[in-house]
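Q: Give me a backbone?
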Amino acid sequence: MGHVPVLLQESIDLLLDAGGSLAGDKLIVDATFGGGGHTRKLLELSSERTVVVAIDRDPAAELRSLSLKQGFGPRFRLLAGNFAELDLLLDEAGIGQIDGLLLDIGLSSFQLDEGGRGFSFRSDGPLDMRMDPTTGSPASAIIQEADCETLVRIFRDFGEEPYALTIARKIIATREQRPLLTTRSLAQLIAEMVPEYKRSRRHPATLVFQALRIVVNDELGALERVLRIGLERLNQGGRMVVISYHSLEDRLVKRFFRDSVKGCICPPRVPICGCGRVSLVKVLNRSGLRPQSAEVERNPRSRSACLRAIERL
């Protein structure tokens, strides 16, 4: 399927002012450009004085951005890089504080549907999984070289895979006979390890592929850094909107937002605050927003999405 932006209207509404448009001179950063759906909607609904800066480390994003460059001219800019380096990217572009930050933490449909990138087990291809294929090591290096203990830790910590030990042992035994270098070879091996009666509608390789992708791209570390930097860069009244797709990401986002809300942490019996801590943000949706059933029906990939948003005080 083609790229379909998730929770599009909900995220745009949160980034827009109460009047329904981004009035005045504003700068919004879409740090996860992907297919450009959120960026395009922001440009269409905002004023002529609003600039949207997109960030993506996938080299293919440049080609996908051409229509926006042609249609919106200087109101749109694309910065090539990892959003974990938000500070550096904005500094190099001559950008200081910003009025909005959007983080859609997930793979774009282009990456999932392109077998050669190795993100999905639904089509065969090299076991790569790098969002920027020019840097770092592919997932196949982990599968071929990591010891059993390391594989178990990766599958459990980053995939919450209940059969982590069984799968790790099978990988070790199999790679001594033949290399596991493709998505299909790994997915088939995992499928053989999961008892039939335990299987749900989800493919049995889903959690292992998730874990490998997170480790290969240091996704949780990158998310922690961009949340911190993004909050520092927000102007007063600026908003940060984050869409996550699995519990590890969502827990990290929720914890960061909760810690940012905290004010004074002095003991209750202390009459005068001595810590000097003040609340930095207000949370705009404490429970998180989930896609409506109609959106899930149109785009099944949206079913696990959760949107959380804060506003800088």
In short: Residues 18-22 have pLDDT under 50 and may be disordered. The chain has two domains: 8-110+219-312, 132-216. The chain is about 40% helix and 15% strand.
